[in-house]
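Morning run. Coffee first, then this:
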Amino acid sequence: YTVTVDANSSATVVTNVAGTVAVAGGGFSLSSGVTLTANVYAGPSVCVTSVSVSATIAGDVYGGSSTSANGASNTGAGTLTITGDVHAGTASLAHGAYLASSGTIAIGGNVYGSDSVASIAGVRSNSTGTVTIGGSVYAGALSLGVYNGSTGTVTVAGSSYGSVGAAGLQNGGTSTNVTI
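And here it is:
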């Protein structure tokens, strides 16, 4: 199931991880102008999606434990603002935040790669859109902090820190608009 968040809402945690009275899966879709005040934890699938709207997650975002289980994903032309930190998940392609559109992901905090899997990033852009990070970018032991896989723009206000196993920021696409 997908739950549409159409009013400003607060919770300690928003997740699609299985619980004692709930099965895993499903997700949350943010309506335009909505602020979701919560930490977001993805489980087996994308947890929060912003589609063609501008919305805010006031909290931290964590990628999930299954392939392609992004914590938050922007698939539209609007801006998805995340005020906290963004963390990669523990499975292949389970990015903390994923940009798949001409829109924007604006992150106020830091971005962290994974210590578990190499084929993952704290933030991944596969589009012509824009990623801005107000904090710094930290690679995990095995994965990138940020990966730009297309022609989009990535701007990091802080610093980029690599590890022995990965770069903090990698431009794997054809973009000439990657700035630290």
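The chain has a mean pLDDT of 92. Good start to the day.
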